[in-house]
Known about the structure:
The chain is of the alpha/beta class. About 20% of the residues lie in helices and about 30% in strands. It has an 8-stranded mixed beta sheet, sandwiched between helices. It has a two-stranded antiparallel ribbon with strand order 2-3.
Amino acid sequence: MKPPFRCLLTAGPTREHLDPxxxxxxxxxxxxxxxxxxxxxxxxxxxxxxxxPVALAAPAGATLHRVCSAAEMLAACEPLFPACDLFIAxxxxxxxxxxxxxxxxxxxxxxxxxxxxxxTVDVLRTLAAARxxxxxxxxxxxxxxxxxxxxxxKLADKRLDWIVANDVSQPGLGMNAEANAVLVLGAGGARHAxxxxxxxxxxxxILDQIAPGRGRPA
Length: 218
Ligand code: CTP
Protein backbone atom coordinates (compact mmCIF):
# COMPACT_ATOMS: atom_id res chain seq x y z
CA MET A 1 0.00 0.00 0.00
CA LYS A 2 1.21 3.52 -0.77
CA PRO A 3 2.27 5.48 2.35
CA PRO A 4 0.04 8.47 3.15
CA PHE A 5 1.02 11.94 1.94
CA ARG A 6 2.54 13.67 4.98
CA CYS A 7 2.16 17.36 5.68
CA LEU A 8 3.82 19.36 8.46
CA LEU A 9 2.48 22.84 9.27
CA THR A 10 3.37 25.61 11.69
CA ALA A 11 0.63 27.98 12.85
CA GLY A 12 -0.26 30.73 15.27
CA PRO A 13 1.99 33.25 16.99
CA THR A 14 5.03 32.43 19.08
CA ARG A 15 5.81 34.00 22.46
CA GLU A 16 9.17 35.08 23.82
CA HIS A 17 8.97 35.52 27.55
CA LEU A 18 10.60 38.34 29.52
CA ASP A 19 9.50 36.73 32.77
CA PRO A 20 6.79 34.17 33.69
CA UNK A 21 3.93 36.63 33.03
CA UNK A 22 5.21 38.93 30.25
CA UNK A 23 6.12 38.14 26.67
CA UNK A 24 6.72 39.52 23.17
CA UNK A 25 4.25 38.20 20.58
CA UNK A 26 1.85 39.32 17.83
CA UNK A 27 -1.84 39.23 16.98
CA UNK A 28 -1.93 36.01 14.93
CA UNK A 29 -5.07 33.97 15.73
CA UNK A 30 -3.82 30.77 14.09
CA UNK A 31 -6.98 30.55 11.94
CA UNK A 32 -5.22 30.37 8.54
CA UNK A 33 -2.87 27.60 9.67
CA UNK A 34 -5.66 25.64 11.36
CA UNK A 35 -7.87 26.03 8.25
CA UNK A 36 -5.04 24.64 6.11
CA UNK A 37 -4.50 21.72 8.51
CA UNK A 38 -8.24 20.93 8.45
CA UNK A 39 -8.41 21.15 4.64
CA UNK A 40 -5.31 18.96 4.31
CA UNK A 41 -6.66 16.35 6.77
CA UNK A 42 -9.94 16.28 4.79
CA UNK A 43 -7.87 15.20 1.73
CA UNK A 44 -6.74 12.11 3.64
CA UNK A 45 -3.20 13.37 4.27
CA UNK A 46 -1.34 12.69 7.52
CA UNK A 47 -1.05 16.02 9.32
CA UNK A 48 1.29 17.27 12.05
CA UNK A 49 0.38 20.77 13.21
CA UNK A 50 2.98 22.58 15.35
CA UNK A 51 1.17 25.48 16.91
CA UNK A 52 1.95 28.46 19.10
CA PRO A 53 -0.58 29.53 21.75
CA VAL A 54 -4.05 30.01 20.19
CA ALA A 55 -7.67 29.70 21.31
CA LEU A 56 -8.60 27.07 18.68
CA ALA A 57 -9.46 23.38 18.97
CA ALA A 58 -7.23 20.86 17.21
CA PRO A 59 -8.49 20.32 13.63
CA ALA A 60 -10.15 16.92 13.14
CA GLY A 61 -7.67 14.34 11.90
CA ALA A 62 -4.53 16.38 12.67
CA THR A 63 -1.90 15.63 15.33
CA LEU A 64 -1.39 18.84 17.31
CA HIS A 65 1.96 19.71 18.90
CA ARG A 66 1.73 22.75 21.20
CA VAL A 67 4.76 25.04 21.57
CA CYS A 68 5.45 28.52 22.88
CA SER A 69 8.70 30.05 21.57
CA ALA A 70 10.44 30.02 18.16
CA ALA A 71 13.12 27.67 19.54
CA GLU A 72 10.43 25.25 20.77
CA MET A 73 8.70 25.44 17.37
CA LEU A 74 11.90 24.45 15.58
CA ALA A 75 12.63 21.70 18.13
CA ALA A 76 9.13 20.24 17.59
CA CYS A 77 9.42 20.41 13.77
CA GLU A 78 12.92 18.97 13.41
CA PRO A 79 12.11 15.31 14.13
CA LEU A 80 8.93 15.50 11.99
CA PHE A 81 10.45 17.29 8.99
CA PRO A 82 12.49 14.48 7.34
CA ALA A 83 9.37 12.31 6.83
CA CYS A 84 7.09 15.06 5.49
CA ASP A 85 6.30 15.51 1.81
CA LEU A 86 4.99 19.05 2.23
CA PHE A 87 5.99 21.68 4.81
CA ILE A 88 3.83 24.81 5.14
CA ALA A 89 5.09 27.54 7.47
CA UNK A 90 2.05 29.62 8.39
CA UNK A 91 3.19 30.67 11.88
CA UNK A 92 3.77 34.32 12.67
CA UNK A 93 7.04 33.67 14.44
CA UNK A 94 8.26 36.49 16.70
CA UNK A 95 11.50 37.69 15.08
CA UNK A 96 13.17 38.82 18.32
CA UNK A 97 13.44 37.65 21.91
CA UNK A 98 14.71 39.45 25.00
CA UNK A 99 18.44 38.87 25.47
CA UNK A 100 17.78 38.32 29.15
CA UNK A 101 14.70 36.66 30.61
CA UNK A 102 13.90 36.09 34.26
CA UNK A 103 12.51 32.98 35.95
CA UNK A 104 10.86 35.27 38.51
CA UNK A 105 8.38 38.08 37.89
CA UNK A 106 10.24 41.35 37.37
CA UNK A 107 9.30 44.24 39.67
CA UNK A 108 8.24 47.55 38.18
CA UNK A 109 11.07 50.07 38.14
CA UNK A 110 10.71 53.84 38.28
CA UNK A 111 11.54 55.50 34.94
CA UNK A 112 12.09 54.13 31.46
CA UNK A 113 13.42 50.65 30.77
CA UNK A 114 15.45 49.57 27.72
CA UNK A 115 15.01 46.04 26.42
CA UNK A 116 17.85 44.40 24.51
CA UNK A 117 16.51 42.03 21.84
CA UNK A 118 18.28 39.33 19.88
CA UNK A 119 16.98 37.48 16.78
CA THR A 120 15.06 34.23 17.19
CA VAL A 121 15.75 31.22 15.00
CA ASP A 122 14.09 31.24 11.56
CA VAL A 123 12.15 27.95 11.54
CA LEU A 124 11.35 28.01 7.82
CA ARG A 125 14.85 29.00 6.67
CA THR A 126 16.44 26.32 8.88
CA LEU A 127 14.20 23.52 7.63
CA ALA A 128 14.30 24.63 3.96
CA ALA A 129 18.11 24.44 4.12
CA ALA A 130 17.81 20.76 5.14
CA ARG A 131 15.28 19.82 2.45
CA UNK A 132 15.31 16.65 0.41
CA UNK A 133 14.47 16.67 -3.31
CA UNK A 134 10.99 15.14 -2.91
CA UNK A 135 9.85 17.79 -0.41
CA UNK A 136 7.72 20.83 -1.23
CA UNK A 137 8.37 23.87 0.98
CA UNK A 138 5.83 26.66 1.33
CA UNK A 139 6.13 29.92 3.25
CA UNK A 140 3.77 32.76 4.05
CA UNK A 141 4.59 36.45 3.73
CA UNK A 142 2.60 38.94 5.76
CA UNK A 143 3.20 42.34 4.18
CA UNK A 144 1.76 45.84 4.42
CA UNK A 145 3.31 47.24 1.19
CA UNK A 146 5.25 46.19 -1.95
CA UNK A 147 3.53 42.85 -1.32
CA UNK A 148 4.46 40.89 -4.46
CA UNK A 149 8.07 42.10 -4.66
CA UNK A 150 8.70 41.46 -0.96
CA UNK A 151 7.08 38.03 -1.12
CA UNK A 152 9.14 37.07 -4.20
CA UNK A 153 12.24 38.22 -2.33
CA LYS A 154 11.44 35.85 0.57
CA LEU A 155 10.63 33.02 -1.88
CA ALA A 156 14.12 33.23 -3.39
CA ASP A 157 15.98 34.10 -0.19
CA LYS A 158 14.55 31.21 1.86
CA ARG A 159 14.76 28.76 -1.11
CA LEU A 160 11.05 27.92 -1.16
CA ASP A 161 8.88 26.31 -3.83
CA TRP A 162 5.89 28.54 -3.07
CA ILE A 163 5.05 31.59 -1.03
CA VAL A 164 1.58 32.75 -0.03
CA ALA A 165 1.55 36.54 0.22
CA ASN A 166 -1.12 38.32 2.18
CA ASP A 167 -1.80 41.98 2.73
CA VAL A 168 -2.05 42.61 6.46
CA SER A 169 -2.70 46.34 6.09
CA GLN A 170 -6.46 45.93 5.50
CA PRO A 171 -8.74 45.57 8.54
CA GLY A 172 -10.87 42.40 8.40
CA LEU A 173 -8.41 40.54 6.15
CA GLY A 174 -5.37 38.39 6.89
CA MET A 175 -3.92 38.38 10.37
CA ASN A 176 -6.43 37.84 13.20
CA ALA A 177 -9.39 37.98 10.76
CA GLU A 178 -12.03 35.51 9.49
CA ALA A 179 -11.22 36.14 5.81
CA ASN A 180 -8.12 36.41 3.69
CA ALA A 181 -7.02 37.44 0.20
CA VAL A 182 -3.86 35.77 -1.06
CA LEU A 183 -1.38 35.73 -3.87
CA VAL A 184 0.20 32.29 -4.33
CA LEU A 185 3.59 32.72 -6.00
CA GLY A 186 5.70 29.84 -7.33
CA ALA A 187 9.48 29.63 -7.71
CA GLY A 188 8.90 28.85 -11.40
CA GLY A 189 7.01 32.14 -11.91
CA ALA A 190 3.42 30.95 -11.25
CA ARG A 191 1.05 33.60 -9.88
CA HIS A 192 -2.46 32.81 -8.59
CA ALA A 193 -4.67 35.37 -6.82
CA UNK A 194 -7.66 34.37 -4.66
CA UNK A 195 -10.13 36.11 -2.35
CA UNK A 196 -11.21 37.90 -0.30
CA UNK A 197 -12.86 34.72 0.95
CA UNK A 198 -13.35 32.78 4.21
CA UNK A 199 -10.13 31.12 5.35
CA UNK A 200 -11.52 27.60 4.69
CA UNK A 201 -12.00 28.46 0.99
CA UNK A 202 -8.59 30.15 0.85
CA UNK A 203 -7.03 27.01 2.40
CA UNK A 204 -8.59 24.75 -0.25
CA UNK A 205 -7.40 27.08 -3.02
CA ILE A 206 -3.83 27.12 -1.67
CA LEU A 207 -3.70 23.29 -1.45
CA ASP A 208 -5.02 22.99 -5.02
CA GLN A 209 -2.09 25.15 -6.23
CA ILE A 210 0.76 23.68 -4.16
CA ALA A 211 -0.25 20.00 -4.25
CA PRO A 212 -2.36 19.48 -7.39
CA GLY A 213 -3.80 16.02 -7.89
CA ARG A 214 -3.39 15.09 -4.22
CA GLY A 215 -7.01 14.26 -3.57
CA ARG A 216 -9.45 17.13 -3.25
CA PRO A 217 -12.54 15.88 -1.31
CA ALA A 218 -15.83 15.81 -3.23
N1 CTP B 1 9.31 32.38 9.63
C1 CTP B 1 9.84 31.38 10.45
N2 CTP B 1 10.64 31.72 11.50
C2 CTP B 1 10.93 33.02 11.76
C3 CTP B 1 10.38 34.05 10.93
C4 CTP B 1 9.58 33.67 9.88
O1 CTP B 1 9.57 30.19 10.23
N3 CTP B 1 11.72 33.33 12.80
C5 CTP B 1 8.48 31.99 8.48
C6 CTP B 1 7.00 32.33 8.60
O2 CTP B 1 6.28 31.24 9.15
C7 CTP B 1 6.62 32.60 7.16
C8 CTP B 1 7.89 33.14 6.53
O3 CTP B 1 8.97 32.72 7.37
O4 CTP B 1 6.30 31.40 6.48
C9 CTP B 1 7.97 34.63 6.35
O5 CTP B 1 7.65 35.25 7.55
P1 CTP B 1 7.59 36.85 7.65
O6 CTP B 1 7.40 37.22 9.10
O7 CTP B 1 6.66 37.41 6.62
O8 CTP B 1 9.02 37.25 7.18
P2 CTP B 1 10.39 37.41 7.89
O9 CTP B 1 11.34 36.45 7.26
O10 CTP B 1 10.25 37.34 9.39
O11 CTP B 1 10.78 38.89 7.43
P3 CTP B 1 10.17 40.32 7.86
O12 CTP B 1 9.49 40.13 9.21
O13 CTP B 1 11.38 41.18 7.91
O14 CTP B 1 9.22 40.74 6.77
